[in-house]
Amino acid sequence: MGIEFLHRPPKVIAPEGRYQLDSVALEQRLGDFIPDVIAYVKDRPLLIEIRVTHGIDDQKLERIKSAGISTVEIDLSAAPRDFPREVLEALVVEAGDHKRWVYNTCAVRQRKRILSEATLRPKIPRGSATLVEGCPLPRFSKPYWVNGKPYARVMYECASCEHYSGDNDEGDAVICRAN
Predict the structure, then answer these.
(1) What domain range is 81 assigned to?
(2) Quick one: which of 98, 101, 116, 153 has the fewest CB in 10 Å?
């Protein structure tokens, strides 16, 4: 369960792997909430939430983000309740699509850095297409022209461009690393 940031090619921020835990605490208060597990890896806290009946709600997610601590959710909701310890260990330790990053401080820092260096190009709906004005790359033999200005089509040109880093949080602009 590594962390990748949308990049062309995808940039690995934290590789998937096994990490030695320095210590583990179960259900200890952390500010105004109680995570299921607080693990420490190289003296840095990592919250681990175990999903059995319900996942992390919006309120808890905001508390996690405010605390600024990386958090992983392990979804055991589909696992039988009477499995042996070895099965539990495998579900927690081994890779699988039942684990996901809820919040990752490295990814947040990387995103902020990329946003500080990138240009937000507003999306413009135009019929069935979504366009971006001012693409700085003259790589299109037939740019899409509107009122005498060249535009890039988000679905085609932006999505396949090495400088495209996704959309902003509001979804109304493209994050472009080209200058």
Answers:
(1) 3-113
(2) 116
Is there a single domain that holds both residue 79 and residue 159?
A: no
Query: What residue type is 65 in one-letter code?
Result: K
Q: What is the pLDDT of residue 140?
A: 54
Residue by residue, DSSP assigns 110-149 as HHHHHHHHSEEEEEEEETTEEEEE----TT-SS-EEETTE
For residue 1, the model assigns a pLDDT of 45
Spatial distance between the Cα atoms of 101 and 78, rounded to a whole number of angstroms = 18
In tens, the pLDDT along 154-176 reads: 888 888 888 888 888 888 999 88
Phi and psi for 3 in degrees, rounded to 5? -115, 130
Whether the pLDDT of residue 130 is over 70: the answer is yes
Name the strand (E) or helix (H) holding 173: strand 173-176
94 and 124 belong to one structural domain: no
Rounded-to-integer distance, Cα 42 and Cα 148, Å? 57
Count of structural domains within the chain: 2
Q: What is the CA radius of gyration of the chain?
A: 21
Tell me the residue type at 177. R
Query: In this structure, how many other beta carbons lie within 10 angstroms of the beta carbon of residue 166?
Result: 16
CB 74 within 8 A of CB 46: no
